[in-house]
Specification:
Elements: H1 3-43, E1 46-48, E2 51-52, H2 55-64, H3 90-115, H4 119-137, H5 141-161, H6 168-171
Antiparallel strand pairs: 1-2
Helix pairs in contact: 1-3, 1-5, 2-3, 3-4, 4-5
InterPro entries: DoxX, DoxX-like_oxidoreductase
Family: Belongs to the DoxX family.
Protein name: DoxX family protein
Length: 181
Amino acid sequence: MGMVGKLRERYVQLGVQLSRLLEPLALFFLRFMVAKVFLDSGLSKWDGFLQFNVEKYDLFKYEFFCPDPVRPGALQLCNPETLEYVEGSFVVKMIELLAVFAGIAEVVLPILLIIGLLSRFAALGLIGMTMFIQLAVFPTWDHWINPASWWAVSLLIIVARGPGILSIDRLLGLDAKPVSL
């Protein structure tokens, strides 16, 4: 074997060792990093255990689904001329239910991701939330490039690679060691 072949072999071996040492930490920090974004948002929606912060209804109603000025392409659920809702309407009840559901999902799914339990399910749920936010609430390239694309890519890595060895999934045998290609 020539010098180039030996250098190539050493380089490949170094890559294997670095992967073995760093991948568990990288996957853990990736899970933690993306989970923290959603968890912080979710915790802000609660005043205490099972006590939803009703002021967040206005966030969903007026910032997300009836912004002034109107965001082109965004899902607008209020009257576009008056930027008001009919109080007690089905739309208002649906938005309030969506706010509570988002508050629950943004707490439960990140906690699952951080501890590494049902990690792929949690990541898929957060991808769904990311896509909804991107397509219905902030449908601009600026929001997609930063931050939504970072959330989506981080979560896709977790779905593709799994949570890694530093997870309850691996401990319980719910996630096998990833296949090397």
